[in-house]
Amino acid sequence: MRASLRPSDPAASPAVERVNAELFTLTYGAIVRQLLTDYEEIDEVNKQLDTMGYNIGARLVDDFLAKANITKCTDFRETADVIAKVGFKMFLNVTATVANWSSDNMECSLILDDNPLVDFVELPETCQGLSYCNILCGVLRGALEMVSMRTEVKFVKDMLRGDDAFEIRLKLLEHVPEEYPYKNDE
Amino acid sequence: MIGVGRAKHNLNVVDSPLGKGKSEVSLSAFAFLFSELVQYNQGKVENIAELEEAGFGVGIQILELLCHREKANRRETRVLGILSFVHSTVADSLEKGTEHEDEYMISEKELLVNKFVSVPASMGGFNCGTFVAGIVKGVLDGAGFPASVTAHFVAVEGQTRSRTTILVKFAEEVVQRDAPLA
């Protein structure tokens, strides 16, 4: 449970402090367990996970931009690539692949082969509707909204429900122009 | 060929190998997740208890995981044994309490969970270390040493942030059981 400071390597700059993934996994499991006992409906739990993820994402994007050292993305394709290669690597230490682009370049899939959130997890029959990793959808949605992109994010393939990988469908709804909270002439 | 097909991956999660446990995630990922846990609990009445419960669940599983992986199925039966096990995974220092026979203290300068947390004065003694206390309680309980575990801030001279101390108070039966073995 102790954080270890790695000497900075060129791939990850500046040095990203890391913790044991199992602590992370078990803590997430405790959160989901708590939500399941508190809420009666599985859908409510899914929604709550999404909301929690949204809150995390809104703050996480600042951390990401501060540490990632990347240039501004020119379009949504580049954004998706950066999320998959840099973002997931930085926070969860896994890389995702981007695939299945729609013809208008507004939708794509992020495919994860490995997901630290679901180590040791099995869904019982009573919770078959549970989207266990829904927090990830919220995180992506929250982070992108803070950089002016309104998106819809959901899981289309879930290993806990028998599929062979985790697939997140990322859809860009619109770019939201930045609004200033004050008027210049007042 | 007859009989050749792709076997469906219906591997029961307890059958698959444990793995080495070397993988890591970023500290900020854990910190964000933990902050959401705390914020979620703040909306409820019984704040501290829920945090400890969550930690308790984690503790029980960590014990199982670490026991199988590192100690090759040997169970700890002595109080000192289980305490050094806990201490090696959690913290800086382990001390025996002077006032009572059954009290021990584990303390750490900057507890991981408290690193990015600031508690407003209005919340008084609330300590996110309660989560860690819950983990310790889970480990002890799972190993057969029922105890009450709490987290406290201890101000240290010359440092702006206080040390966090986890106080472990073993149940009567544990002390009595352990005494003749000394």
Explain what you see.
The complex is a heterodimer of chains A (186) and B (182). Chain A has helices spanning 21-38, 42-68, 76-92, 134-146, and strands at 18-20, 96-99, 107-112, 149-157, 166-175. By secondary structure, chain A is of the alpha+beta class. Chain B is of the alpha+beta class. Chain B has a 4-stranded antiparallel beta sheet with strand order 2-3-5-4. In chain B, helix 1 packs antiparallel against helix 2 (47-70) and helix 3 runs antiparallel to helix 4. The model of chain B is unreliable at 3-10 (pLDDT under 50). The chains are: A alpha+beta (186), B alpha+beta (182). At the A-B interface, strand 1, helix 1, helix 2 and helix 3 of A face strand 1, helix 1 and helix 2 of B.
Short description:
Chain A: It comes from Physcomitrium patens. Chain A is α+β, with helices and mostly antiparallel strands and 186 residues long.
Describe the SSE topology.
The complex is a heterodimer of chains A (186) and B (182).
Chain A: E1 18-20, H1 21-38, H2 42-68, H3 76-92, E2 96-99, E3 107-112, H4 134-146, E4 149-157, E5 166-175
Antiparallel strand pairs in A: 2-3, 3-5, 4-5
Helix pairs in contact in A: 2-4
Chain B: E1 24-26, H1 27-42, H2 47-70, H3 79-90, E2 93-96, E3 103-108, H4 129-142, E4 147-154, E5 163-170, H5 172-178
Antiparallel strand pairs in B: 2-3, 3-5, 4-5
Helix pairs in contact in B: 1-2, 2-4, 3-4
- The dominant shape of chain B is globular
Query: If you average the pLDDT of chain B, what whole number results?
Result: 80
User: Biggest interface between protein chains, with counts per chain?
Assistant: A-B, 41 and 36 residues
User: Can you tell me the CATH architecture of chain A?
Assistant: 2-Layer Sandwich
CATH topology of chain A: Muramoyl-pentapeptide Carboxypeptidase, domain 2
Number of strands of chain B: 5
What's the shape of chain A? globular
Please count the helical segments of chain A: 4
Radius of gyration of chain B: 20 Å
Strand order of the largest sheet of chain A: 2-3-5-4
Q: Provide the CATH superfamily of chain B.
A: Trafficking protein particle complex subunit 3
Kindly identify the CATH topology of chain B: Muramoyl-pentapeptide Carboxypeptidase, domain 2
Q: Biggest sheet of chain B, in brief?
A: 4 strands, antiparallel
From the coordinates shown, what is the CATH architecture of chain B? 2-Layer Sandwich
Structural class of chain B: alpha+beta
Order of helices and strands of chain B: EHHHEEHEEH
- The CATH first-level class of chain B comes to Alpha Beta
Q: Which class of secondary structure composition applies to the elements of chain A?
A: alpha+beta
The parts of chain B where pLDDT drops under 50 for at least 5 residues are 3-10
CATH class of chain A: Alpha Beta
Protein name (chain B): Trafficking protein particle complex subunit
Subcellular location (chain B): Endoplasmic reticulum; Golgi apparatus, cis-Golgi network
Keywords (chain B): Endoplasmic reticulum, ER-Golgi transport, Golgi apparatus, Transport
Organism (chain B): Physcomitrium patens
